[in-house]
Amino acid sequence: MLFIEIILPVFLTILAGFVLEKKSSLDFRTLTNCSLYLFVPALIFSALIKREIRFDLAFDLFLFMIFYTLAMLALSVVIGRSLRMDPDTRGALSLTTVVMNSGNFGLPLAYFAFGDPGLEASILIFVLFNIPLSTLAIVLAQGSAASLREALVNTFKIPLFHAVALAFAVKALQVPCPPFLLRPLELLGQAAIPLMLVLLGMQLARTRLQLLPGFLSLATLLRLAIAPLVALGVTGVLGIHGLERQVAILQTSTPSAILPLLYSLRFGTRPDLVAGAIFVTTLLSAVSLTVLLYLLQG
Prior knowledge:
The protein has helices at residues 2-23, 28-49, 55-82, 87-98, 106-114, 119-142, 148-155, 159-173, 179-189, 192-206, 213-238, 242-251, 259-267, 271-297. It is mainly alpha-helical and 298 residues long. Helix 1 (2-23) runs antiparallel to helix 5 and helix 6 (119-142) packs antiparallel against helix 7. The chain is globular and about 55 Å long. It starts with a helix and ends with a helix.
C-alpha cells in the first residue's frame, strides 16, 4: 500500500512530465524559472510563516547536513581513489552520490509520505542542503579550476534562500503577515510540488542515457543503499528522532540530483556518467524508497 499511496503518485507525476516533454516543445527554461523564482519561494515562505519555527530543529538539521555531506563526500573520494578512477570519473562519482535530489524529488516525496506535519522539516532540509550542495556541485564539476567565491555568489542568488531569511526575520520580529499577502503566496506555493516533479520528468526525457554497468552499479549502491545507512547513523549520533528523523532519512535517500548534470555538461566532467546515474537511480528508487518507507514506519 505504501508504494501505491506514496511512491506511485510521485512517479506518475514524473511520467506526466516525461511524456509532455516527448510530445511537445514547451519552453523548459521558462517553466524552471517559474518554479525557481516564484512557486518554490512562495511555498517555502508561506509554509514557514504559518508555523512556529523551531530554531533548535534548524540547528540540529544544519549539523545533520554538515556531517552527512562530509561522510558521503569522504566515502565517494576514498572509493574513487581506491579503484584508481581518473579525476573526471571521481568527480562524476561524487556528484552523483553526494548531491541527492532533495528538491524536485525529495520535497514532494516527504509531503506525500508525512503530509503537512512533515513540511517544516522537509523544507528546512531542502534549503539547508541546497546551499552547500549547489556550491559543492559547481566545485566538483569544475575540478581544479573551481572558484569557491563564484560558486557561493551564484548559490546565494537563488530566491529560495531569500524566502527563508525573510520568513525567519518576520517570525523573529513577530510581524504578522496580512491575509491578503499570505493567501496568494499559499496559492502559488500549491503549484510548486507538482511542477517540481513535472520538471524532473521533462529533464529525464532530455537525458541521453549511456549504460556503463560498473560505474552505474557503484553509484546506485552508494546513493540508494549506503546513503540511508549514513543518514541513520548521523541522526542517531545527533539525537534527531521522531518525525524529523524519518523525514531527514527519507529525503536524503532520494536519487541523484539533476543539477550536477547541468554543471557537468558545462565543465565537461563526464556528463555521460552523471546522466546515466541520475536516470538509473531515479528508476530504482521506486524499489529502494518503498522498502525504506516500510522500515521507517515499522
